[in-house]
């Protein structure tokens, strides 16, 4: 019905407030079905049987039925007429524009109408799932299909409804005539579909993924069907068309689609459902027919055109993402590269030049199962010399569970594969293998359909044996700085085994020990950069893939010495005589690694053409070359001879023999008056100069003829002043001349005396140690130099530069006391007379004898952070500074601790006292001793030992779970305590067999999480405190439990009859091969009774009483077998499903619908409504209390 202006009405309730349809019509001879399509922007007005006026805003589809045989009054606007059509005894009133023509076969495009018209809540309860398609853009259905395929306009109004909300249902009873009429309408619908009627359900969700491929006779409404109990068919509306492209109502609009644009020349297409054939595990063939244009006056003249088809496939559900796999003009396509045992959904779209794109209905199919995929290569988890343990993972089973695995191997012969293992386990141990041998394995999986292909091969080796020790290496050749060695393979070594050799060497006298010199697979090597003439020790190792052999016997070889270097340049020793010369030389810096055996001295005249002659060959390093010509130049060179050969000659030395020395001189004489410390002497030149000019004079002097002479002057002058003489002494003087040839003879003696002066320096005093702290010094009187000595002065000190006078007097001795033992002292004596103070004599030194050591000054206790690995409960570490030894080396120390316990240690500065009592205070002191005795004790210190480390506590498991274990140990709080110094280390064994720390802290409980179900885990525990870490406990084993099944969703209850209802629930998959059983309970009050236990997912409850409320709940159980037999582990119960049974009564046609309407309006509160009501009441009470407290208490 289209209306431009709605009539003026006083009250126009909305559609949700006025019932559009009574419960059911029974016993009528005729029924009026009115289908009104309201366009956008228009209003449809209707008067119902009870006199109410209802206005419906477009866009909408309004189906109506009259329960009493009369047509309700309809306001028809200008330009519209109502038309009554009767078919097969069924009258229909159609309202359409005045100029419309009735085209029952035409399917015009509907406008953008609401996807769903809400029925009155008292008549049509909400289904448990939405009946309209998803909102575009959510990712479930591509948005380009939403506007082309709107859902049906509430066709569920004409089918049996079941309410699943809160377990209640509205029961409507139909009579036999109504059922026949619906069957008739279904038959007409099938005929129209067979004749090319447009039938497009691309956007209508099917009842379930398993029912998407059902035939057109399946009872589907808005994605929901009656299931196994759906005995009533749905009512399909007749097609009503309008001219001029205006939107018209469609009885089958939920199954078709049309364009939203109006065009004058437009084809209406009907696209049949594609067909799937030749379904295999990885391929299927899809075929379809071209779209057929609907027959109408406008389309009869159109000619067929070519279409382009596009095939889209989805394996993620009907609302999932579709992928285009084909585009072309063919009408069949083979889908390849599919997954076995997988649900696929396919649709075909067609497009032409003059038509909009048309999409077929979705067709679903499931590929066949097949043999499993080839598994991955197994992995080696453990290997020994004679066994290999392999482990593998399961591959994709392709829809059929893998039942067994086939493991083949080549038996280590690199030949054909043979069966090694066949079974359902995922690991296998192969024993009785050969060491160090290569084996190759491959794996295949088998299910109920067949055997898969073999996966990749796995080559692996068993552990071998190390080679035997080889023979020692042999010396092939030796050089100055290299050695060439060779060796052979070890006796008993396998010829197939690849060996490498490690040659280790040790230099004689080296502290570094053996070091690697060669590492390789050769049987010889040359070691370079060695020291010459040095002995080296060698040993050899053989090495293969399994390890290193023992060493060979140690052998010793030496390098060769080298030629020595050239000696130093010869030098003249002594004077050069006219007939001989004495030369000397130093040994070479480089001896060549060996001792020098002899030297070779060669001499030659400096004139050209002279030959070298050997003047000397021997081991000494000096020689006198005699029988030389005076005044002649000679060249000399020297070389040395060693074990390495003769060296190069040294640099050449050139010498020349001297002339004849001058003759005898006259004795010297005194010039002037003598002084106390000097005299002036004068002499004459010699009468004979020796053939050479006198170059200098030498004046020698001595205290007497018997004493050694010393040179007083050397020069060309004929006089000199002799200084440094002693007063009151007589000296003897001699003079001689020298020229180029040498020195002449000495003159006769001349005696000359000096004037008196201060005393001479005193002789060196004699020091005698009387005790370790007392020395007696004695001295003799020095010459007085012509004046009597009046006193002596003694200086004393520990250093030469810091002595001080300790005695002044005429005595010739003095006793010095208060000295330190084993100390060196210095002293000197000075004499005094009337002429002055004499010089100090020579310094005398004396050392006091040694004594017992001094007392230890510093004695400390080592800190705890400086100790590692010591039990602090029974040990104390001492540290002290070594005292003065007083001249005798300290031998050791006496440590006194405890009750006069004395411990003697060597000469160390630290010691650890062991085997002490824990938690005990000790008084400790120490004294040093040497060969002379024991020194005094040091000041005592006090130290206390730590208590003993705690023993490991008993470990137990307080709470067992399938994925965690709560462990408990000891007695104490579960949380950390600041006052508790004891710490605990909890260790758990990992997959590699190692114990790793999972908790460290003061708590007495710990929860180990992320564990696997039904698995045994091993633990150790250790306690530690300030005294240290205690021992680890024994290994504890705790096992996790099996995980219970998850909670089942709330069951669904369907009433099958007056006294029977069926309870269904969703199944659960088996858990690791364990079967699943279910327990169904019926709750009455606070108690629940078990009414079913078994593997089924549905149960029919008999003897259900009418008008009673029942609550059902379900839990899943896991059946498994252990050592005690079959066990069952049940999970949590599902939420309660509430069900109210009602009697199915027939509604009389003449009965008043008002009481039934009021009864249907009464509705039990749901759990959510009841909770919301409690929340509102609680909030109201809280606000009242707040107001009362504010008013009466605060104010």
Automatic annotation (TrEMBL):
Q: Which CDD domains match?
A: FN3 (cd00063)
Give the family per the record: Belongs to the FNDC3 family.
Q: What is the organism of origin for this protein? A: Crotalus adamanteus (Eastern diamondback rattlesnake)
The protein's name in its UniProt record: Fibronectin type-III domain-containing protein 3a
Main location as per UniProt = membrane
- What residue spans carry the region label Disordered? 128-269, 551-575
Q: Which GO terms describe its cellular component?
A: membrane
* Subcellular localization, as worded in the UniProt entry: Membrane
Q: Which residues cross the membrane?
A: 1170-1194
Per UniProt, the keywords (alphabetical) are: Membrane, Repeat, Transmembrane, Transmembrane helix
